[in-house]
Amino acid sequence: MTGREANYTFSDPYVDNSIVFVVRADSGIETKEDLAGKVVMTQADSSALTALTNEEDNEENLALSASFAALDQTGDYNSAFMNLEAGSIDAIAVDIGVAQYQLNSRGDLFVKLDEPLSTEQYAVGFKQGNTELRDQVQETLYEMLEDGTLDTIAANYKDYNLDQMLCLGK
């Protein structure tokens, strides 16, 4: 929903999808500033790439990106994680859900930097002005939160750590 608020009527956000950096645990990289002079990779046409290259109201991220030795693109994040494991790149800019899955499945090899590159919020979108339907859906989402249905759904995606990502009602 981030950046589209004027075009649609949205429910309350239900996921905060941060874009984060993942590095090798033994890299010594602890902050975004430590990425200066490093090779960073992200997936082509991804939110992470947009966060690093969008020229509209994005001076801080553009300066960060300009500090990299290179910003490489790949067709998929699996290739990026193989490159990171092999040491041919220094960091990956990636959605937190994908990052969390990789961190959970690869053990102690990688770590996520604490500070996100950016955040985007996900919500249910409706035709501009359709508050009646939005309110119905919103009520159902809060009922699902209260009765545990959202927890049951999230349990099916344990590798993505949805407890961290769910922001409905916070």
Show the helix and strand layout.
Blueprint: E1 8-10, E2 15-24, E3 39-43, H1 47-53, H2 59-67, E4 70-74, H3 77-86, E5 91-95, H4 96-105, E6 110-112, E7 118-122, E8 125-127, H5 131-147, H6 149-155, H7 162-165
Parallel strand pairs: 3-4, 3-5
Antiparallel strand pairs: 1-8, 2-5, 2-6, 2-7
Notable characteristics:
170 residues; alpha/beta; D-Maltodextrin-Binding Protein, domain 2; 6-stranded mixed β-sheet; two-stranded antiparallel ribbon; 7 helices; 8 strands; globular
Number of helices: 7
Low-confidence stretches: none
Taking the sheet with the most strands, its summary is: 6 strands, mixed
- CATH topology call of the largest domain: D-Maltodextrin-Binding Protein, domain 2
Question: In sequence order, what are the helices and strands, one letter per element?
Answer: EEEHHEHEHEEEHHH
Share in β-strands: 15-25%
Would you count the extended β strands for me?
A: 8
How many angstroms does the end-to-end distance come to? 17 Å
Helix content: 25-40%
Count of all domains: 2
Shape, per Cα inertia axes: globular
State the CATH architecture of the largest domain.
3-Layer(aba) Sandwich
**How would you state the average pLDDT, rounded?**
89
Report the top-level CATH class of the largest domain: Alpha Beta
Helix and strand content put the structural class at alpha/beta
Rg from C-alpha positions?
18 Å
The CATH H-level homologous superfamily of the largest domain: Periplasmic binding protein-like II
